[in-house]
């Protein structure tokens, strides 16, 4: 029976977030995903980056809701390997509704208005135009969203909970993979022979847009290859 389905981001108090997390604290990822769909049904969307964690979460979601709504923020500058993976995942899970969400501006329009290669000069503005604003549009009218964040990924992610008050998007952000380690993610992918981005085999632990992602040397942090040369480790979706 849905428990919080009538509640929205604004209506839940901090105590209620604490209580939900307490109730879920002994549950595993599959239980958290089930809980999320029981509570939010069609008002829940998964914003997937199609990284290794994303593939794991897609597989788990497909066991709970075979026609789940999944969005991919198509900045138009992803690696060709990432676009191939999205197509491949759709073939493996034909019932999933994978939506390629486009920015309001084409790359040409962005260049005309903000100058060429905005990712080199103002990556925060570029991320805002090509990721934040499109996700804001997607989440308008939805109550909650799923994310594949893991606590060990970076200090900025170390305190995330299963259920989070998301002030930025006025939404409820549910993160079922918070306890997973990098090895857990890959054990799961190998166990179930899931498709994954071939760039992972070439030294890219975290994969974003092609202009802002480099391979990482052994021993580098999982997000060390993102926005090299800038004091930036997040695109802004999770801050
Ligand atoms: S990751 Fe780079 S190219 Fe992609 S939206 Fe952000 S700044 Fe732009």
List its salient traits.
single chain, 239 residues, alpha/beta, Rossmann fold, 6-stranded mixed sheet, 8 helices, 37% helix, globular, binds iron/sulfur cluster
Describe the structure in your own words.
The chain has 239 residues and is an alpha/beta fold. The protein has a single domain (14-212), classed as HUPs (Rossmann fold, 3-Layer(aba) Sandwich). The chain contains eight helices and six strands. A six-stranded mixed β-sheet has the order 3-2-1-4-6-5, sandwiched between helices. The model has no long low-confidence stretch (mean pLDDT 91). Bound molecules: iron/sulfur cluster (SF4). Iron/sulfur cluster binds at residues 75, 77, 119, 123, 126-127, 130-131, 208-209, 211-212, 235. It is found in: Cytoplasm. It is an enzyme of class 1 (oxidoreductase). Residues 44-215 form the Phosphoadenosine phosphosulphate reductase domain. InterPro entries: APS_reductase, PAPS/APS_Rdtase, PAPS_reduct_dom, Rossmann-like_a/b/a_fold.
* CATH domain topology: Rossmann fold
CATH architecture classification: 3-Layer(aba) Sandwich
Mean pLDDT: 91
**Bulk shape:** globular
Proportion of helical residues? 25-40%
How many domains is the backbone divided into? 1
Contiguous runs where pLDDT drops below 50 for at least 5 residues: none
Structural class: alpha/beta
Number of helices: 8
Record field, number of beta strands: 6
Active site: 235 (nucleophile)
Family: Belongs to the PAPS reductase family. CysH subfamily.
Keywords: Cytoplasm, Iron, Iron-sulfur, Metal-binding, Oxidoreductase
GO biological process, one term: sulfate assimilation, phosphoadenylyl sulfate reduction by phosphoadenylyl-sulfate reductase (thioredoxin)
């Amino acid at each position: 029976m849905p428990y919080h389905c009538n509640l929205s981001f604004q209506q839940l108090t901090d105590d209620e977030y604490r209580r939900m997390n307490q109730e879920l604290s002994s549950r595993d990822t599959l239980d958290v995903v089930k809980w999320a769909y029981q509570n939010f049904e069609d008002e829940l969307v998964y914003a997937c980056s199609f990284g290794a964690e994303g593939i794991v979460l897609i597989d788990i979601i497909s066991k709970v809701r075979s026609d789940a709504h999944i969005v991919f923020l198509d900045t138009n500058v992803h690696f060709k390997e990432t676009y191939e993976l999205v197509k491949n995942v759709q073939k493996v899970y034909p019932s999933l509704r994978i939506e390629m969400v486009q920015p309001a501006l084409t790359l040409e329009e962005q260049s005309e208005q903000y100058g060429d290669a905005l990712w080199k000069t103002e990556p925060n503005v570029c991320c805002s135009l090509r990721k934040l604003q499109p996700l804001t549009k997607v989440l308008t009218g939805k109550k909650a969203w799923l994310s594949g964040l893991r606590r060990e990924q970076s200090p900025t992610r170390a305190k995330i909970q299963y259920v989070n008050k998301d002030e930025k998007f006025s939404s409820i952000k549910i993160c079922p993979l918070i306890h997973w380690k990098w090895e857990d993610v890959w054990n799961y992918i190998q166990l179930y022979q899931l498709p994954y981005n071939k760039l992972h085999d070439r030294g890219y632990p975290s994969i974003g847009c092609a202009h802002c992602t480099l391979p990482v040397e052994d021993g580098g942090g999982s997000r060390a290859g993102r926005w090299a040369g800038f004091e930036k480790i997040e695109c802004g979706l999770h801050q």
